[in-house]
Amino acid sequence: MTGESKETTEKYKEGLSKTRKSFSGRLNEIMARYRKVDDDFFEEVEEVLIGADVGFETVMELVDELKHEVKLRNISDPKEVQEVIVEKLVDIYTGDEELDASVNIQKDLTVILFVGVNGVGKTTTIGKLAHKYKEEGKKVVLAAGDTFRAGAIDQLEVWSERAGVDIIKHAEGGDPAAVIFDAVMSAKAKNADILLCDTAGRLQNKVNLMNELEKVKRVIAREIPDAPHEVLLVLDATTGQNAFVQAKQFKEATDVSGIVLTKLDGTAKGGIVIAIRNELDIPVKFVGLGEGINDLKSFDATEYVYGLFADVIDAEK
């Protein structure tokens, strides 16, 4: 294991500690309490999964598969069921075909649009990604397209300074599409590699917000026909099912290509990753595992499941 992958594994383990304590801690209690695998046992497992925000439909599906597998393998010891749960969670995430968690980076300019409601950590996410790409040697430009939220432009400007990248901005209350247009032209003129575009998180109503997003996308596509190359929806993991509802709404209204799940380290409901994958079929591309500038990590399904069950897996080594 390289130093970087070891650091990532530790970050997942540490970042998912709240979920693990609640989730695998409660599962361990159930495993220890029951002498046999019966209906009461499965009912309690169901409750723990729902409590971790794995999602109702996903839990029902998972428990049915667990029952089938237990019967098939003739498992009578509850402790052996934990291994099957780990297997099934990996199966659910990888699905029939594994969703691509990589970012669609182009040879020329890559345009990434960020959407999401206010307060989910959208601006911070953009700043951290700007830092990440700059560290990788890429030339990055930021577009302050959230012109409606007080302080959003200033906040993004602070991040541009911190990351050492250029920012294109207009006055507060200006036309977001005009900002994005100027940013596209500037990024092209500077031969930039990546343009990260902030957008409004809330307007008077959902229709206005979605119309605004469509307008922004049209402006980008006029200049770069296959752009935006990614539309990343930023969600706050600590809001649990509310984040799931937001994902559903944004998916209906715009072409979301991936999810950035912030504050995963601050919640005991980290199962939301599984629910989003299984019920909405959108890949999680980045997860926030801490507040530091380097704590936004590319999503890795294996590391994630390890983070959920690290104590059990480590104990078996």
UniProtKB/TrEMBL annotation:
CDD domains: FtsY. It holds the Pfam family SRP54. GTP binds at residues 116-123, 198-202, 262-265. One of its GO terms (biological process) is SRP-dependent cotranslational protein targeting to membrane. Residues 283-296 form the SRP54-type proteins GTP-binding domain. The keyword Cytoplasm applies. One of its GO terms (molecular function) is GTPase activity. GO terms for cellular component: cytoplasm; plasma membrane. Keywords: Cell cycle, Cell division, Cell membrane, Cytoplasm, GTP-binding, Hydrolase, Membrane, Nucleotide-binding, Receptor. It is found in: Cell membrane; Cytoplasm. It is a peripheral membrane protein. It comes from the Bacteria. Its EC number is 3.6.5.4. It catalyses: GTP + H2O = GDP + phosphate + H(+). Belongs to the GTP-binding SRP family. FtsY subfamily. Part of the signal recognition particle protein translocation system, which is composed of SRP and FtsY. PANTHER family: SIGNAL RECOGNITION PARTICLE RECEPTOR SUBUNIT ALPHA. NCBIfam families: ftsY. Involved in targeting and insertion of nascent membrane proteins into the cytoplasmic membrane. Acts as a receptor for the complex formed by the signal recognition particle (SRP) and the ribosome-nascent chain (RNC). This is Signal recognition particle receptor FtsY. It comes from Listeria fleischmannii subsp. fleischmannii. The gene is ftsY.
